[in-house]
Amino acid sequence: MIDSAIQQKFDNAKKITFLTGAGVSTPSGIPDYRSKNGLYTNDASDKPAEYYLSIDCLKNEPEVFYDFMMKNMYYPDAKPNVIHERQAEFTQKRDAMVITQNIDGLYQKAQTKKLVEFHGTLFDVYCLKCGKHVDYHEYLHDMHHKDCGGILRPNIVLYGEGLDGENISRSVAAISTSDLIVVVGTSMRVYPFAGLIDYRPNSAEVVVVNQEALNLGFPITMVQEDASKFFEDLQVN
Ligand SMILES: [Zn+2]
């Protein structure tokens, strides 16, 4: 059972923003490459995952980049779980938005109505040479664009690249007008995403649902439990 005081915060909120990370996707079978059990430590090579996810790797060793993408990043058969689905329901029935760090496309699959994919998505692919966007299935078969021979890439923010300005402004606009901010499955240590919370109104309530207790430096309601369990019990009223 969910704590009734917490359910009430959701029921009474006029505008909700969810800030989410890798912990939302692990129940769908997608590993968190930053975590202990993620790719970072499973990788037999001497380079950290951050290198393979960098603009330098894409530019200098496109074959290595492509190989890393195919082996570690794409889970085209993964399905949204109850966390994605419940948050999507909030965006459909209430004034709510999801801002996620995840690039796995699961919020889109769950039909999230108002969504910012802060770091882009693996399922939007375009050609570096001609700029055309192609179906991601083509990329799963070949790193080259069949029309022009250019190198294809996913529309994700790589290390060494800047963020999309529109994503930032939409995120700031949502947070600065929300009275309930819900942090789920992220330790809020990766900037600039983590800095978004600083745009909240002083009066906004912040609820954190995470396995590990977080100290954000201001008062929060900490729900230290399995996010799947929490969202299974949470009602969209
Ligand atoms: Zn092309």
TrEMBL record:
Matching Pfam families: SIR2 (PF02146)
Ranges where the Deacetylase sirtuin-type domain occurs: 1-237
Enzyme class, broadest EC rank: transferase
Native organism taxonomy: Bacteria, Bacillati, Bacillota, Bacilli, Lactobacillales
Classification via PROSITE patterns: SIRTUIN
Catalytic-site annotation from UniProt: H119 (proton acceptor)
Keywords carried by this UniProt record: Metal-binding, NAD, Transferase, Zinc
InterPro entries linked to this entry: DHS-like_NAD/FAD-binding_dom (IPR029035), NAD-dep_sirtuin_deacylases (IPR050134), Sirtuin (IPR003000), Sirtuin_cat_small_dom_sf (IPR026591), Ssirtuin_cat_dom (IPR026590)
SUPFAM superfamilies per record: DHS-like NAD/FAD-binding domain (SSF52467)
Residues annotated for Zn(2+) binding in this entry: C127, C130, H145, C148
UniProt-listed Enzyme Commission number(s): 2.3.1.286
Single GO term (MF): NAD+ binding
Protein name (record): protein acetyllysine N-acetyltransferase
Domain of life: Bacteria
